Amino acid sequence: MIKYRGIIYDNVLHAQWACFFDIVAWRHQYKPSPVPNWHPTFRVEFTCGHSECGEYHSLLVDVTTRQWKMKESPGRRYPFGHLDIKISVEDWHQEWDPEIDACASAVFGFHPGLSEWEMSHGAGGGTHSVQDWVPEWERIWSRAAAVIAELEHAQRAMDVRFIESYAVKKGE
Ligand SMILES: [Zn+2]
Question: Are 78 and 60 a contacting pair, CB within 8 Å?
Fold first, then answer.
């Protein structure tokens, strides 16, 4: 667990994504309202300048650290915001919503190079990734990593001081 800007994140990766969103000015909400059978990690919104799009695009994001799990991620269930009709019947759950309140569901891996979703954009639509929207992602991701590493270090140091002070008090 790590605290970043007042919110406690389950792990360093989640905090790093939050920091990344801050740097690129994507609005983000950690653990938004769940949809049936899925607790998204983030809801994000980013502005789109295209004349045929709304002011911004929104995604419900599943962050997964396991690259081999990306194919099975619930972040793949709602391309274009609607339940994927290609989901095989035996995998389908009746309680799933036919659509979500976002442009699409997305899966984000352990860096922005591993991210994918399908949404409408401009006159068409298709597969997008963070790389398409943030060409500078590598530099920004490193910056976010540095911020979170420093934060984690500081939080750990404080924990140690807390533990030490507690030990001294107990020994008195
Ligand atoms: Zn757009």
Answer: yes
Report the percent of the chain where pLDDT is more than 70: 86
pLDDT at 172: 45
**30-49 pLDDT, tens per residue?**
999 998 778 999 999 999 98
Residue 165: per-residue pLDDT: 67
Q: What's the CA-to-centroid distance between 115 and ligand 1, angstroms?
A: 17
CA of 124 to the centre of ligand 1 (A): 9
Q: How far is the CA of 48 from the centre of ligand 1 (A)?
A: 5
Phi (first) and psi of residue 99, to 5 degrees: -150, 165
Question: What is the Cα–Cα distance from 83 to 85, expressed in whole angstroms?
Answer: 6
Please say whether the beta carbons of 40 and 17 come within 8 A: no
Buried (b) or exposed (e) across 83-112, using 16+ Cβ within 10 A?
beeeeeeeeeeeebeeebebbbbbbbbebb
- How far is ligand 1, taken at its centre, from the CA of residue 76, in Å? 19
Q: Is the pLDDT of residue 19 over 70?
A: yes
Q: At 128, phi and psi to the nearest 5?
A: -125, 160
